UniProtKB/TrEMBL annotation:
Entry annotated with the keyword Zinc-finger: no
Region Disordered, residue ranges: 548-567
Compartment annotation: Cell membrane
Pfam families to which the protein is assigned, alphabetical: BCCT
GO molecular function, one term: transmembrane transporter activity
Protein name in UniProt: Choline/carnitine/betaine transport
InterPro entries, sorted: BCCT_transptr
Regions crossing the membrane: 27-45, 65-84, 105-125, 161-178, 206-228, 248-267, 279-299, 337-355, 367-391, 424-443, 470-489, 495-515
Keywords for the protein's UniProt record, in alphabetical order: Cell membrane, Membrane, Transmembrane, Transmembrane helix, Transport
Presence of keyword Transport: yes
Principal cellular location given in the protein's record: membrane
Organism from which the protein derives: Saccharomonospora glauca K62
């Protein structure tokens, strides 16, 4: 970023400048051109893009799945280390500052942004897919009681410590830069201690461009999942029959409009308000399913699954299915490699957003709030929803796992949530509530993503201009439409994996930069403490000598007449 663009970014939001001067041109325009070019090409030649995306998926998964497994596990270790070490006392902001948001609103906003639609989409679908062996049984999960337990535990891996550790790395790095070091809201400044003055040049621009493109595609992946599930819910409720691309485009357009309205109102109004409503509705749906479902089984399953998760965490974290051949690659592309890529592609967006709302918290509070609390909530969520579905398959009437013409197990991934809810009392009403929840998650993910992209493209302005908020909101919706046209769920998964590859290198650099920054701050803190201790010791000795009459307050000498210095 140039000095000029930095100055513009920090200018008061109300200053009168031409619209084109309110953005960082070396970041905004390349990002916009890259994304618009993808959308145009995909809409014009969707079949060609489908083929290209398929080839990319096979190459990336076959070549880099081991890399994703390794670095994401590294991020977990790194997050725990900075939270539990003496670095945890470092304040993300001035030492005397209190947190900007209360715990309730803070948790609601980071949780809604961090998991979003995916939590509702996969809450029932993922455990059922693992149980049914989709796409294959490379992990050894079987379709029986033991396999049902394994399905929940495997889901815990994908939604537990690992994704939130990814957010911790990016969030802490950015929060320290913008709140402690007073830098603009930008990914590049998280690497300042690593790349030095180059943060202001082309390298810094490339980092922010990669973050913007990754965020747009990562959020668009979630929006695509959301409209697919909304369409399935409308079909299940007989509102729309056999929804197709036209239905999805209309849904994306309508909900993107709501998201734009929210993001234009800002964090403290629209986004905070929607996030609180969102979490309230999610908690209500969770509680109702817990009470109406097999309550005792759910509690037993939760305790048992947490134990299995902790017992097998190390093995699952490094399981690359190396000895499973083509089945192993296919499984990784469907699940773990897809998830790690998805979370990394979300990391710029979620990291900037939770950094923006975490001013005044210590590193230890940040790690505990972002890593541990959401992990516990997601475990409860998947046990309640996934456990209820598996209980129905094992001990009830079944029907959520079917078979195709070859006898292979099948799961209606998009409609499985509504199928599970339909088996409970007031199932139709619960399905309507779930649809509303999905829409709200859609809106909170989209508006938060638009705000973050806008801040990055505006050179770090925490209150970017409204016109650009609208622009990026529309572009998010356009990318979601393009990905759906290019292959639906498979295209969404592939792009998430691909986009994560370059940004994962940035994240490794962030780990090094965080360590350097925290070590330097710790040394400065210790020097200040030692200086204070010396001053306090000198004062104590002086006061003792004065009290004992060995020296006079003016330092002229004590009872023996000798000259005794007081300092």
């Amino acid at each position: 970023m140039t000095a000029t663009s930095e100055t513009e970014a920090q200018a008061p939001s109300g200053s009168r400048r031409p619209w084109y001067a309110t953005v960082a041109p070396r970041v905004f325009w390349p990002s916009a051109v890259i994304i618009l070019a993808f959308v145009i090409v995909t809409v014009l030649v969707p079949d060609t893009m489908t083929e290209v995306i398929g080839d990319i998926q096979e190459t990336v998964i076959g070549t880099f799945s081991w890399y994703y497994m390794l670095i994401v596990s590294l991020f977990v270790v790194f997050s725990l280390w900075i939270g539990l070490s003496h670095y945890g006392d470092i304040k993300l902001g001035p030492d005397e500052e209190e947190p900007e948001f209360g715990l309730k609103s803070w948790f609601a906003m980071l949780f809604a942004a961090g998991m979003g639609i995916g939590l509702v989409f996969w809450g029932v679908a993922e455990p059922l897919n693992h149980y049914a062996g989709i796409p294959n049984r490379a992990t050894g999960i079987t379709q029986d009681e033991e396999g049902a337990q394994g399905a929940i535990v495997q889901t815990f891996l994908h939604w537990g410590l690992h994704p939130w550790a990814i957010y911790v790395v990016v969030g802490v790095a950015i929060a320290y830069a913008i709140h402690r070091k007073k830098r603009p809201v930008s990914i590049r400044y998280a690497l300042e201690s690593l790349i030095g003055k180059r943060v202001h040049g082309w390298l810094g621009d490339v980092i922010d461009i990669a973050a913007i493109v990754g965020t747009l595609f990562g959020v668009a992946t979630s929006l695509g999942l959301g409209v697919i599930q909304i369409g399935a819910g409308l079909d299940f409720l007989d509102v729309v029959s056999d929804p197709g691309n036209l239905t999805y485009v209309v849904l994306i357009g309508a909900i993107t409009a709501l998201a734009i309205f929210s993001v234009v109102t800002g964090v403290k109004r629209g986004i905070k308000w929607l996030s609180n409503i969102n979490m309230g509705l999610a908690a209500a749906l969770l509680l109702v399913v817990l009470v109406l479902g097999p309550t005792l089984f759910i509690f037993k399953d939760l305790v048992q699954s947490i134990g299995d998760y902790l017992q097998n965490l190390l093995q699952m974290s490094f399981n690359t299915t190396a000895y499973e051949g083509a089945d192993g690659n296919e499984w990784q592309g469907w699940w773990t490699t897809f998830y790690w890529g998805w979370w990394i592609s979300w990391a710029p967006f979620v990291g900037v957003f939770i950094a923006r709302i975490s001013r005044g918290r210590t590193v230890r509070e940040f790690v505990a709030g972002v890593l541990l609390v959401p992990t516990a909530v997601t475990m409860l969520w998947f046990t309640v929803f996934g456990g209820t579905a598996l209980y129905r398959e094992l001990f009830g009437e079944g029907g959520l796992v079917g078979t195709d013409e070859t006898g292979a197990a099948t799961v209606d991934t998009e409609a499985s949530l509504f199928g599970m809810l339909d088996g409970l009392p007031a199932g139709t009403l619960l399905s309507v509530g779930a649809l509303i929840l999905i829409v709200l998650f859609f809106v909170t993910s989209s508006d938060s993503g638009s705000l973050v992209v806008d801040m990055l493209a505006s050179g770090g302005d925490p209150e970017p201009p409204r016109w650009s908020r609208v622009f990026w909101g529309l572009l998010e919706g356009a990318v979601a439409v393009a990905l759906l046209l290019a292959g639906g769920l498979s295209a969404l998964q592939t792009v998430a994996i691909l986009i994560a590859l370059p940004f994962s290198i940035v994240m490794l650099g962030m780990c090094v930069a965080i360590w350097r920054d925290f070590r330097a701050e710790r040394k400065a803190m210790l020097r200040a403490q030692r200086k204070l201790q010396r001053e306090q010791l000198t004062e104590h000795v002086t006061n003792t000598l004065i009290d004992d009459g060995l020296v006079e307050p003016n330092g002229k000498g004590g009872k023996g007449g000798e000259k005794v210095p007081v300092s």
